[in-house]
Design a protein that fits this description.
Layout (H helix, E strand, L loop, with lengths): L2 E7 L4 E2 L4 E8 L2 E9 L19 E7 L1 H8 L12 E7 L6 E7 L4 E3 L4
Parallel strand pairs: 1-7
Antiparallel strand pairs: 1-2, 3-4, 3-5, 5-6, 7-8
Amino acid sequence: MGLSTHVLDTMHGKPASGMAVALLKKQGDAYLLIKSLVLNADGRADSALIETQDLRAGQYRLVFSVGEYFRTKVKDLQEPLFLDVVQLDFGVSNPKEHYHVPLLASPFSYSTYRGS
């Protein structure tokens, strides 16, 4: 299964359909873009971000365009937004395991955990 993610819009109690997400991998002192995508109606990528056979140990970063998403859903948000981009840095120590990195987000808070 490799690496996967999904986002729940906790303000509206539903999946964050249409949110843009980017996946990067640390190479030396820089992060290189691996993939960018838009989440489907279920708030998920249509396929794994990285398949098991391609997942490598190392440091990764998921960048969620939370502000852009909520600007399309909420008409009276004050600018600048409290949260615009949520960046999660995480490590993969055993690439044979499945890594699922969910995000629960509102315009004012977020949480994450290692899912299953």
